[in-house]
Amino acid sequence: MEEFTLLTQCPLFSGIGTEKLRDMLSCLRARRETFSPEAFLLREGDLAQEVGLVLSGRGRSVMEDGFGEPVVLSLLFPGSLMGVFLAASRDHISPVSIQAQEELTALFFPGETLSAPCSRNCPEHRVLVRNYLSSLAEKSLVLNSRISCLARRTVREKVLAYLTQAAAQKGIDPQQGGEFSVPLDRNAMAAYLNIDRTALSRELSRMKQEGLIDFRKDRFRLLQIPGPH
User: Fold this and answer.
1) Which residue, among 142, 162, 141, has the nearest Cα to 152 in the 3D structure?
2) Residue 176 burial by CB count (10 A; 0-12/13-18/19+): exposed, middle or buried?
C-alpha cells in the first residue's frame, strides 16, 4: 500500500486517478524487482530499454573517470526515476552504472510503453506520455544544475552554488536570509559535489565561522549573498 501511494504521488502519473493507475500498471507491463546492497541494477555498456522508479532504498548512478575512479552522477531515493534518457535514446547503450547503496526495490516499465499511446488510445495513457516528456525536461534541468555545481573550481564555490540552488528550489530569497532544508546528508552532498566528505565538513565549518552561512544538520541559511562566480 505504501509503495502504491508513492506511485500516485510520482509526477510520471500526475493526473491519473488511483483506479486507472491500477489498471495502467498491467497495461505498462510493470515489473517489480529488489536488489541487495552494492548490487548493480545496470552496468556501463548494458542495453537499457526500461525506465525504473525507485520504490524504496537508495542508490546512485556512477561513471568511471580517466583514472578508473567512480564519479557519482546522481543519487537515487524513493520516487527517483532511472533510465529516462536511455530509454528514449536510439541505441539504448548505458554510459553509466546504477548501483544500490542499500536494499533497493524498483518498478520497471518498457520505455516504449511510456513514449507512445497504447493500442486503445485511452486518455490516461496520453496524459502519461505528456508526463514522460515532462520528466525528460525535468531530468535535463536537474543535470544542468549538477553540472553548474561541478564546474566550480573550489570546494567553497561548489557548496555555495549548491546551497543557492537549494534555496531557490524552496522559494527562498537569499537576500532575506530565509532558512531552508537540503535533501542530502553530508555523505550524499559530498558525493553529489564530487568532493571528499572531510573537505566538505571542513569548508562548511569555515564558512560558518566567517559568517557566510549558518546551519544545523540539514537546515541552512545564507548570510552573505554570493556574487557571480
Assistant:
1) 162
2) exposed
Prediction pTM value: 0.74
Query: Would you state the cell numbers that stand for residue 79, as one nine-digit string?
Result: 520516487
**What sign does the dihedral 215-218-219-223 (CA atoms) show?**
positive
Task: Enter the C-alpha cell of residue 33.
Answer: 524487482
Task: Supply angle C-alpha 124, 130, 136, rounded to 5.
Answer: 135
Provide the residue ranges of all domains of the chain, joining segments of one domain with +: 2-115+122-143, 152-222
pLDDT, tens digit, for every residue of 64-105? 766 677 778 888 999 999 988 877 776 778 888 999 999 999
Alpha-carbon dihedral sign for residues 143, 98, 193, 216: positive
Give the CATH H-level superfamily of domain 2-115+122-143: Jelly Rolls (2.60.120.10)
